[in-house]
Amino acid sequence: MTEANYRVIQRDDDSFTVEVTRAGALPQFAACFATEAEANAWIVQDKRLWEAADPFRGPAHRRRRRF
Questions:
Q1: Total number of domains in the chain
Q2: Which of 14, 31, 34, 66 has minimal CB crowding within 10 Å?
Q3: pLDDT at position 52, please?
Q4: Is residue 59 part of a domain?
């Protein structure tokens, strides 16, 4: 599983954006949160979804079945 770093950024219009960075990938942004608490709640949910993914499952082209 890829480790992610999250950063909450306050924008000029007082809304909040979350920057997500993962090794080997371009940064991604989740924008338009009204409060910092909403942005943090989104981070918690995103972490849950990543943790729920099967950490032993690789990309489809790398999976091999052994019999």
A1: 1
A2: 66
A3: 84
A4: no
Tell me, yes or no, whether 60 lies in a domain. Answer: no
Cα gap 19→4, rounded to integer Å: 10
CA distances from 32 to 6, 9, 29, 42, 45 (A): 15, 11, 10, 11, 16
The pTM is what?
0.73
Look at residue 50 in the predicted model and tell me its pLDDT.
83
Maximum C-alpha span of the chain: 58
Neighbours of 15 (CB within 10 A): 16
Q: What range does the domain containing 42 cover? A: 4-54
